[in-house]
Amino acid sequence: MLRNMIKYSRIIVIACASVILSSSIPAVVKAAEVAPAAATTESAKVPVVDGIVQPREPITDQLVRAMAFLKKADNGYVPGKLDGPLAGYYSSAHVLPDGSPSARKFCFPARQHAYFIFTFLLYNKYSGESEWLQRAKDLGDWNLTHSTPADGAWPNLPWGVWTDGKGGGSQDKDATEPDKAAWFGKAYLALYDTTKDERYFAGAKAIADTLVKHQAEDGSWPFRVVPQDGAVRQQFGGAPVFYVEFFQLMSQRDKNPAYKKAYEQSLKLMIDRNIEKNLWGTYHEDIKEKADDYLSAEPMSFTADYLFRNAKEHPEYVDMGRKVIERLEAKLVHTEGHPAAPAPAVSEQAGFQHMMPGHTARYCLALTDLYAATGDKEVKRKAMSGFNALTYMQSEPGLYRTMFQLVNEKKPNAKREDWYSQHLYTVCHVLEAMQTLPELKGK
Question: Where along the chain do its domains lie?
Fold first, then answer.
C-alpha cells in the first residue's frame, strides 16, 4: 500500500457521475493527488476509469495497516494465553481512533466475535502469519466457556451481548439472539475445518441441538429469548439466512435428520419472509423493536450473497438475490453525497443513515458473487468501485472509520465512535472477494 498518506480529514473528495477520466490515469491514485479538503463534499472529484472509481492507494496495503492497527488494543494480550490480559475486542465493541482500547465494557460476541474469527482465519491464510490462526482459536475457546448456562432452557449459545463480565445487556437486556448463535455455529465449523479440533465441532453441534428443539412449525425462531427460562422478549426479527446456512453446513457433516429438517424449514421461511414479503424487522443488538418491514443492510446483503453463492445448484436464486439487492439499493446504497462518489457506499439501516465501510464491503461481496454467478460486467464494475471506495474510509493510523459519513453531510469528519466490527468486517469481505476479483490484489 502507498505509505504517503495525508490525514484522512484532508481527503474529502467526491465524483460527478458524468466525469470519466482518460485511461491514462494510473490505477492507484496517491493521496497527494486527491483534491484537498473543501467546505462541503460537493466540490472535489475522484478519478473514474472505465466506469470504476479508482482507489486512493492499494487496498492490500490498507489491509496490512488495518491488522496492525488492531494490535494496538492488545493491552498485554499474548495469543494463546487466555489466562492473562485480553485484547480490547474481547470485552468492548468500541475502539479509540488511535487504536487504544475503549473503557466501555460491552460487546456482541455471537455476531462480532464470530465475524472476527472468520477475518482472522482469512488473514492467516492471506498473510501466512500463524498468529492470526491462534487469535481465531482464542476467540472460539473464550466463547466455548462463556456461553449461555448449560442447564438453561436455551443452553450452550454464545451470548448476543456481553456486559461488564456477564451475558446480556444493550437492547437485548436479559435475553440473547438465537440467529446470532447460528452465525457463530458457522464460525465453530470454520475453526473445526481448519484445525480438526473436535471441541469446535462439539460447540457447533451444541448450538444446533439447542436450536432444533425450539424451531416453530413455520420454520422460525424468536428473535430475543431469555436463555435461562425461555421467556420470549421479542418474536420477530433477525436473519433467517444464518439458520439456513448453519443447518445446511451441519446437515452435510452430521446426518441427524433434525438438521436437514431445520435447514429446509428455515429456507422456506427466508424465501417467504425476506424475498416474497420483504419483511426483515429488528436485527442489531443495540436496536429496540422495529416494524416488520424495517430494513437493515447487513441481513439483506448476507441473504443476497447466500443466494448468489448457491445459484449454480439453484438458478432461480439469482432473481431472488437481485430482488433483495434492488430493495437495498433503493433505500440504503448511496452513489452521491459522499467523498468516494459515484462509488456506492452503504448505510447501516433505515433509521441510521451513516455510511459505513463494513456494510459497503459486504454489499460489494454480494455483487461479487452475483458477478461470479452471471458474468455481468456492470455488476463487477459496481463492486470494484465500492471496494475502491473503502480506501477513502481509512484513517491515517489504519482504522476503517465506522461512521464514515452521513449522506450529504454539510460538515463531514465529525468525531464519532468507532467499532472493531466495521473495521474487521471490511477486511473480511475484501479478502473473500479477492478469490473472484484478483484485481483487488494489485499488480
Answer: 1-96+329-443, 105-294
